[in-house]
Amino acid sequence: MSSSTDRVVYSTEHVLTSLCNSVTRVLTVATQSQIQYSAMVQRITKTCLRPDIGCFVLFDGGFSGLMVINFSAQAAMELYSSYLLSMGMSKDELARSYTSDEVSNVMGELMNQVAGDFTGKVRRELQTHITQNQPKMLVLNKQVMLSVDANLDQPEARRVTFYTGNNNIFYLELAIDRTEFLKLYDFEPQQRANPDEVMAEANAPRDVAPPPPDNDTDELLRSLGM
What we know:
The protein contains 5 helices and 11 strands. With about 230 residues, it is of the alpha+beta class. The strands form 3 sheets. Strands 2, 4, 5, 6, 7, 9 and 10 form a 7-stranded antiparallel beta sheet that branches. The protein has a two-stranded antiparallel sheet with strand order 1-11. Strand 9 and strand 10 form a beta hairpin. It is globular, with a radius of gyration of 25 Å.
Protein backbone atom coordinates (compact mmCIF):
# COMPACT_ATOMS: atom_id res chain seq x y z
CA MET A 1 0.00 0.00 0.00
CA SER A 2 1.50 3.33 -1.05
CA SER A 3 1.44 6.24 1.38
CA SER A 4 -0.58 9.38 0.75
CA THR A 5 2.63 11.24 -0.13
CA ASP A 6 3.07 8.93 -3.13
CA ARG A 7 -0.31 9.77 -4.60
CA VAL A 8 -0.88 12.42 -7.21
CA VAL A 9 -2.34 15.52 -5.55
CA TYR A 10 -4.66 17.91 -7.41
CA SER A 11 -4.66 21.15 -5.43
CA THR A 12 -5.93 24.73 -5.72
CA GLU A 13 -3.20 25.67 -8.19
CA HIS A 14 -4.11 22.72 -10.43
CA VAL A 15 -7.75 23.79 -10.45
CA LEU A 16 -6.70 27.36 -11.22
CA THR A 17 -4.42 26.24 -14.07
CA SER A 18 -7.23 24.14 -15.56
CA LEU A 19 -9.56 27.13 -15.42
CA CYS A 20 -6.96 29.45 -16.98
CA ASN A 21 -6.44 26.95 -19.80
CA SER A 22 -10.19 26.90 -20.42
CA VAL A 23 -10.19 30.70 -20.68
CA THR A 24 -7.31 30.78 -23.15
CA ARG A 25 -8.63 27.85 -25.21
CA VAL A 26 -12.18 29.14 -25.61
CA LEU A 27 -11.25 32.78 -26.25
CA THR A 28 -8.39 31.90 -28.62
CA VAL A 29 -10.68 29.72 -30.75
CA ALA A 30 -13.59 32.18 -30.60
CA THR A 31 -11.62 35.33 -31.44
CA GLN A 32 -8.97 33.76 -33.71
CA SER A 33 -6.29 35.59 -31.70
CA GLN A 34 -3.75 34.50 -29.14
CA ILE A 35 -4.85 34.83 -25.51
CA GLN A 36 -2.16 34.34 -22.85
CA TYR A 37 -1.91 34.49 -19.08
CA SER A 38 0.89 35.38 -16.70
CA ALA A 39 3.04 32.67 -15.16
CA MET A 40 2.77 34.50 -11.84
CA VAL A 41 -0.35 34.15 -9.70
CA GLN A 42 -1.35 36.51 -6.90
CA ARG A 43 -2.81 35.40 -3.56
CA ILE A 44 -5.73 37.64 -2.63
CA THR A 45 -8.08 37.80 0.34
CA LYS A 46 -11.34 38.32 -1.55
CA THR A 47 -12.78 38.41 -5.05
CA CYS A 48 -14.43 41.55 -6.42
CA LEU A 49 -16.19 42.75 -9.52
CA ARG A 50 -14.23 45.73 -10.78
CA PRO A 51 -14.65 48.32 -13.57
CA ASP A 52 -15.16 48.35 -16.51
CA ILE A 53 -17.18 45.20 -17.25
CA GLY A 54 -17.14 41.79 -15.59
CA CYS A 55 -19.06 38.71 -14.56
CA PHE A 56 -19.10 36.04 -11.88
CA VAL A 57 -19.84 32.32 -11.98
CA LEU A 58 -20.66 30.16 -8.96
CA PHE A 59 -19.60 26.50 -8.99
CA ASP A 60 -21.20 23.91 -6.74
CA GLY A 61 -21.16 20.15 -6.36
CA GLY A 62 -17.94 18.16 -5.93
CA PHE A 63 -16.38 21.39 -4.69
CA SER A 64 -17.63 24.96 -4.31
CA GLY A 65 -16.05 27.97 -5.94
CA LEU A 66 -16.48 31.43 -7.37
CA MET A 67 -14.94 32.67 -10.62
CA VAL A 68 -14.82 36.40 -11.38
CA ILE A 69 -13.51 37.85 -14.64
CA ASN A 70 -12.95 41.60 -14.91
CA PHE A 71 -12.37 43.18 -18.32
CA SER A 72 -11.11 46.61 -19.17
CA ALA A 73 -13.26 48.39 -21.74
CA GLN A 74 -10.51 47.94 -24.35
CA ALA A 75 -10.14 44.21 -23.69
CA ALA A 76 -13.90 43.63 -23.81
CA MET A 77 -14.31 45.51 -27.10
CA GLU A 78 -11.35 43.71 -28.67
CA LEU A 79 -12.69 40.27 -27.75
CA TYR A 80 -16.25 41.18 -28.73
CA SER A 81 -15.19 42.61 -32.09
CA SER A 82 -12.76 39.80 -32.94
CA TYR A 83 -15.37 37.17 -32.14
CA LEU A 84 -18.13 38.66 -34.30
CA LEU A 85 -15.76 39.55 -37.15
CA SER A 86 -14.50 35.96 -37.20
CA MET A 87 -18.17 34.90 -37.48
CA GLY A 88 -18.51 36.98 -40.63
CA MET A 89 -20.24 40.09 -39.26
CA SER A 90 -19.48 43.41 -40.90
CA LYS A 91 -17.46 45.93 -38.91
CA ASP A 92 -20.17 48.53 -39.50
CA GLU A 93 -22.67 46.35 -37.61
CA LEU A 94 -20.62 46.18 -34.40
CA ALA A 95 -21.53 48.04 -31.24
CA ARG A 96 -19.43 51.13 -30.57
CA SER A 97 -19.28 51.02 -26.77
CA TYR A 98 -18.60 48.36 -24.15
CA THR A 99 -21.74 49.57 -22.32
CA SER A 100 -23.94 48.23 -25.15
CA ASP A 101 -26.29 45.36 -24.27
CA GLU A 102 -24.99 43.49 -27.31
CA VAL A 103 -21.43 43.53 -25.91
CA SER A 104 -22.69 42.23 -22.56
CA ASN A 105 -24.68 39.45 -24.24
CA VAL A 106 -21.80 38.31 -26.45
CA MET A 107 -19.25 38.40 -23.64
CA GLY A 108 -21.69 36.58 -21.37
CA GLU A 109 -22.02 33.80 -23.93
CA LEU A 110 -18.23 33.51 -24.21
CA MET A 111 -17.93 33.26 -20.42
CA ASN A 112 -20.62 30.57 -20.43
CA GLN A 113 -18.52 28.59 -22.93
CA VAL A 114 -15.46 29.03 -20.68
CA ALA A 115 -17.35 27.75 -17.63
CA GLY A 116 -18.76 24.83 -19.63
CA ASP A 117 -15.31 23.85 -20.88
CA PHE A 118 -13.99 23.94 -17.31
CA THR A 119 -16.81 21.88 -15.78
CA GLY A 120 -16.33 19.32 -18.54
CA LYS A 121 -12.63 18.99 -17.68
CA VAL A 122 -13.47 18.60 -13.99
CA ARG A 123 -15.78 15.72 -14.87
CA ARG A 124 -13.19 14.02 -17.07
CA GLU A 125 -10.02 14.64 -15.05
CA LEU A 126 -11.25 14.68 -11.45
CA GLN A 127 -14.16 12.26 -11.89
CA THR A 128 -16.51 14.53 -9.99
CA HIS A 129 -19.36 16.81 -11.01
CA ILE A 130 -19.90 20.54 -10.52
CA THR A 131 -22.69 22.80 -11.71
CA GLN A 132 -22.59 26.48 -12.65
CA ASN A 133 -24.93 29.43 -12.87
CA GLN A 134 -25.49 31.40 -16.06
CA PRO A 135 -22.85 34.16 -16.32
CA LYS A 136 -24.21 37.69 -16.58
CA MET A 137 -21.96 40.55 -17.60
CA LEU A 138 -22.25 43.70 -15.48
CA VAL A 139 -21.08 47.14 -16.61
CA LEU A 140 -19.63 48.93 -13.60
CA ASN A 141 -18.94 52.59 -12.95
CA LYS A 142 -15.33 53.40 -12.11
CA GLN A 143 -16.32 54.43 -8.59
CA VAL A 144 -18.23 51.22 -7.86
CA MET A 145 -16.70 48.01 -6.55
CA LEU A 146 -19.13 45.14 -6.00
CA SER A 147 -18.02 42.27 -3.76
CA VAL A 148 -19.57 38.85 -4.29
CA ASP A 149 -19.68 36.39 -1.41
CA ALA A 150 -19.86 32.62 -1.84
CA ASN A 151 -20.54 29.97 0.79
CA LEU A 152 -16.96 28.84 1.29
CA ASP A 153 -15.77 27.37 4.60
CA GLN A 154 -12.00 27.71 4.06
CA PRO A 155 -11.64 29.93 0.98
CA GLU A 156 -8.44 30.25 -1.01
CA ALA A 157 -8.38 33.08 -3.51
CA ARG A 158 -6.09 33.68 -6.49
CA ARG A 159 -5.78 36.36 -9.18
CA VAL A 160 -4.28 35.88 -12.65
CA THR A 161 -3.51 38.47 -15.31
CA PHE A 162 -4.49 37.75 -18.95
CA TYR A 163 -3.37 39.45 -22.15
CA THR A 164 -5.32 39.71 -25.40
CA GLY A 165 -3.74 39.61 -28.84
CA ASN A 166 -3.40 43.41 -28.74
CA ASN A 167 -1.99 43.31 -25.19
CA ASN A 168 -5.14 44.58 -23.53
CA ILE A 169 -5.47 43.25 -20.00
CA PHE A 170 -8.18 41.42 -18.10
CA TYR A 171 -8.13 39.54 -14.82
CA LEU A 172 -9.46 36.22 -13.57
CA GLU A 173 -10.10 35.76 -9.85
CA LEU A 174 -10.91 32.37 -8.33
CA ALA A 175 -12.02 31.53 -4.80
CA ILE A 176 -12.57 27.88 -3.85
CA ASP A 177 -12.71 25.84 -0.70
CA ARG A 178 -9.35 24.57 0.42
CA THR A 179 -9.29 21.03 -0.91
CA GLU A 180 -7.03 18.38 -2.41
CA PHE A 181 -7.84 15.53 -4.75
CA LEU A 182 -5.78 12.37 -4.21
CA LYS A 183 -5.55 9.73 -6.91
CA LEU A 184 -6.46 6.39 -5.31
CA TYR A 185 -5.64 4.38 -8.44
CA ASP A 186 -4.50 5.03 -12.01
CA PHE A 187 -7.13 5.81 -14.63
CA GLU A 188 -7.26 7.28 -18.09
CA PRO A 189 -9.14 10.60 -18.25
CA GLN A 190 -12.00 10.58 -20.74
CA GLN A 191 -11.19 12.18 -24.03
CA ARG A 192 -12.89 15.43 -25.03
CA ALA A 193 -15.60 14.74 -27.59
CA ASN A 194 -14.86 16.24 -31.01
CA PRO A 195 -18.06 17.90 -32.28
CA ASP A 196 -16.98 17.54 -35.93
CA GLU A 197 -16.38 13.81 -35.53
CA VAL A 198 -19.70 13.32 -33.76
CA MET A 199 -21.57 15.12 -36.54
CA ALA A 200 -19.69 13.21 -39.25
CA GLU A 201 -20.53 9.89 -37.62
CA ALA A 202 -24.18 10.85 -37.27
CA ASN A 203 -24.43 11.88 -40.93
CA ALA A 204 -22.40 8.98 -42.36
CA PRO A 205 -24.37 6.57 -44.59
CA ARG A 206 -24.99 3.27 -42.89
CA ASP A 207 -24.80 -0.14 -44.55
CA VAL A 208 -28.29 -1.61 -44.65
CA ALA A 209 -28.65 -5.35 -45.14
CA PRO A 210 -30.87 -6.27 -48.12
CA PRO A 211 -34.24 -7.75 -47.19
CA PRO A 212 -34.53 -11.54 -47.33
CA PRO A 213 -35.88 -12.90 -50.58
CA ASP A 214 -39.63 -13.28 -50.75
CA ASN A 215 -40.42 -16.41 -52.81
CA ASP A 216 -44.10 -15.49 -53.22
CA THR A 217 -43.14 -12.08 -54.55
CA ASP A 218 -40.62 -13.60 -56.98
CA GLU A 219 -43.22 -16.00 -58.35
CA LEU A 220 -45.72 -13.16 -58.80
CA LEU A 221 -43.19 -11.09 -60.71
CA ARG A 222 -42.33 -14.06 -62.94
CA SER A 223 -45.99 -14.69 -63.64
CA LEU A 224 -46.28 -11.10 -64.79
CA GLY A 225 -43.26 -11.49 -67.07
CA MET A 226 -41.10 -9.25 -64.94
